[in-house]
């Protein structure tokens, strides 16, 4: 995809989705950056709720953006741009998690566990401290992130989408192909589990969990722009599948 990087970068903050998408289809570097700036945090949080690892979530986010940008012609504005991107990111994260499980199962068959030791099937790599986060809330945020990670997968994704990203019950249900009543039930159970784990400490940390700004936001945005600007060589594979297809995500 050719990017129009020679023109002075526009300030597109006040532009609506339709205008931004039209500019992106024309190859505007500024439009792609504005789309990512508006959606990075939500999409990162959704991806991380599925894969439970910040590095994996960043990879999911890059791949989801590339699929979406390669298929911008299919965006018709029937749903908001953020909703369309959330569907693509959720599908990409679920596909990655399924591949990880398949790889882990194959490795487990090929490698016997040493006697007398416990094998950690899903190791969690620790996140580096974010220097931009407020120091006074860092410990509480860490406790909250750990508690959210430990929720059952079906509860965790509902909680992140509804309580952290503040999507409506209806929007959450549509993304996960669930009935609104099921979303409400899972959300209630997720909150109850978190209350048991954190008691009164939970309320102050909601707005800062899984931060996605500053250096991380810039890194993802610049990486996607670099990949978009990379010349397409003969034989290079196109992104798999149709970006806007809603696949069965296994949460029903």
Write a brief caption for the model.
With 252 residues, the protein is mainly α.
CATH architecture of the largest domain: Orthogonal Bundle
Proportion of strand residues:
under 5%
Shape summary: globular
Low-confidence stretches: 105-130, 241-248
The description of the largest β-sheet is: none
Helix content: 55-70%
Total DSSP helices? 9
Number of strands: 0
- Separation of termini? 37 Å
Q: What is the CATH C level class of the largest domain, in words?
A: Mainly Alpha
Number of domains: 2
Question: Looking at the chains present, what oligomeric state does this protein adopt?
Answer: single chain
Q: Which sequence of SSEs, written as H and E, runs from N to C? A: HHHHHHHHH
- State mean pLDDT (0 to 100 scale): 78
Summing up helix and strand content along with how strands pair, one would put the structural category as mainly alpha
Write the layout of secondary structure elements.
Layout: H1 17-25, H2 29-51, H3 54-70, H4 81-110, H5 135-149, H6 153-164, H7 169-176, H8 180-198, H9 214-229
